Amino acid sequence: MAKFRGAILSCGTCGKEFKVSPNRAATAKYCSNKCAGVGRGLDFELPKVAIVCKWCGKTFFEHRCHADRRTYCSNDCRLADPVYREGCSERGKGEGNAMWTGGIAAHTDGYIYEYCPEHPLAKGRYVLQHRLVMERHLREHYPESPCLIKFGEQLYLNPELSVHHDNEDKTDNRVENLRVMTMSDHNKLHNALRRAKKLEGE
Question: Model's pTM, two decimal places?
């Protein structure tokens, strides 16, 4: 068993001995928060206020300073309430998420993704931005385009079609740099580009 290298002190309120780590040996004075409160002149026995649990209806008591924040008597009741769970879910989405970056995300595959949770073809609430750019362009200027299909009341780019970056920069999503083509033609084009680069390198 490892030797204890801390310090054994005597509580300034109750006199009980307690152990502390070496870095607290010079500053620790009390064995607990309760003793610290008494030692600092705080009254931990102030009357508490009665609160009715929002979920189970049980009455519980809490310090007045916390009363405006406590609506559940326990974590179990808080997590059992679907309204609370829904609120947590909403706070974690979109702008409510602490990691929110404006709805634009660079993926490890090199493409740019855009937050678009209402899109019927979204994956994890995100859609490839170059597809959205082309989709919006066609919808606004060429609504009769055969590249668009209807989901509900809205037009969307056919998921069976590909969008090619002419300059091969996956992050350059200007509409003038994009072309719609079949997946077969897209694969053939990239194969031809790879062969051309290989010949250039020989």
Answer: 0.52
CA distances from 119 to 22, 84, 156 (A): 57, 26, 9
Please check whether the domain covering 104-201 is classified as CATH 1.10.10: no
Question: What residues contact residue 166 under an 8 Å CB cut-off, 6+ apart?
Answer: 177, 178, 179
φ, ψ at 8 (rounded to 5°): -110, 115
Structure tokens at 178: 């994009």
Q: Which residue from 163, 172, 165, 158 is spatially nearest to 134, judged by alpha carbons? A: 163
Distance from the Cα of residue 8 to its chain's centroid: 44
Q: Which residues pair with 187 in a beta bridge?
A: none
Residue ranges, comma separated, of all CATH 3.90.75 domains in the chain are 104-201
Higher-scoring residue by pLDDT: 5, 89: 5
